[in-house]
Amino acid sequence: MSGNGEPRPSLAVVIPMYNEEAGAAECVSVVCRRLQQLPTRACLIAVDDGSMDGTGAMLARLASSEPRLEVVTHRGNRGYGAALRSGVEAAARSGYDYVLFMDSDLTNAPDDIPRFLDAMTPGVDVIKATRYRGGGGMRGVPIRRQIISRTGGLVARVLFHAGVSDCTNGFRAVRTSLLMRLQLRERRFPVIVEELYCCIFIARKFAEVPVVLTDRQAGLRPTSFAYRPSVVWRYLKYALLACLRVPPTGRIAA
Predict the structure, then answer these.
(1) Is 19 left (phi over 0), alpha (psi -120 to 50) or beta?
(2) What digits encode the pLDDT tens for the residues 122-169?
(3) Rounded Cα distance, 30 and 204, in Å
């Protein structure tokens, strides 16, 4: 129950995984342990996006003993955007109110999950983690990446003009019914800003949760994200469309 006596919203954490055998067990264990402590119905939906290592077998073994874990499997690698969509559809089938997206490398702290739950108040459709307000930050992240992230974040914040200070942060929670209306096209990480761009036109209210982002642990597969000009443009174009108030035609179902 919430502080005003209303029942807490239910929550599905969606984590895409691709060749994450080295860290899958720890991720599932830590996240499920944190979900067990929440005062609401909650689960972890791990999406194996066509992994070519032992990720799928590892998740199958974990699911046999962890009741809060649901595994969705793609036969081939379909990309981050498709993995998110599969997780959202699984959450909707099970009737969860919100979907919380996290990364499998635990750079998003599971201890921050209750803070998202506290922000799920009536009227709030989108809750974004922020590194730039209220004690948020980055720890162990290389300076070059911090500079690029802060610069890009400032540009996006000005252009989106949605009251969100960390537009590119993939650690976020969105109301499931709203996500099911989105018909997103990006396959890779720019889907995060495509999603925000669409939400600006249909979300009732945004909220933020300050978090500290950490660097990816040694021994895990290196991140596939790269700051190439083509990638930067795919992020920037959605901020520009939002700034110009160009509606996301074909991306939102009625």
Answers:
(1) left
(2) 999 999 999 998 888 888 877 877 767 676 666 777 788 888 999 999
(3) 32
Model-level pTM?
Answer: 0.90
Residues of the chain whose pLDDT is less than 70? 1-5, 147, 149, 151-154, 216-228
- Give me the domains of the chain, ranges plus CATH numbers: 11-243 (3.90.550.10)
**What's residue 142's pLDDT?**
78
Q: CA-CA distance, 85 to 79, in Å (whole number)?
A: 10
> Which 3-state string (H, E, C) describes the chain?
CCCCCCCCCCEEEEEEECCCHHHHHHHHHHHHHHHHCCCCCEEEEEEEECCCCCHHHHHHHHHCCCCCEEEEEECCCCCHHHHHHHHHHHHHHCCCCEEEECCCCCCCCHHHHHHHHHHCCCCCCEEEEECCCCCCEEECCCHHHHHHHHHHHHHHHHHHCCCCCCCCCCCEEEEHHHHCCECCCCCCCCHHHHHHHHHHHHCCCEEEEECEEECCCCCCCCCCCCCCHHHHHHHHHHHHHHHCCCCCCCCECC
Distance CA(101)–CA(45), nearest Å, equals 10
Tokens of 47: 């999406």
On whether the CB atoms of residues 116 and 40 are closer than 8 A, the answer is no
- Pair of tokens at residue 249: 């035609």
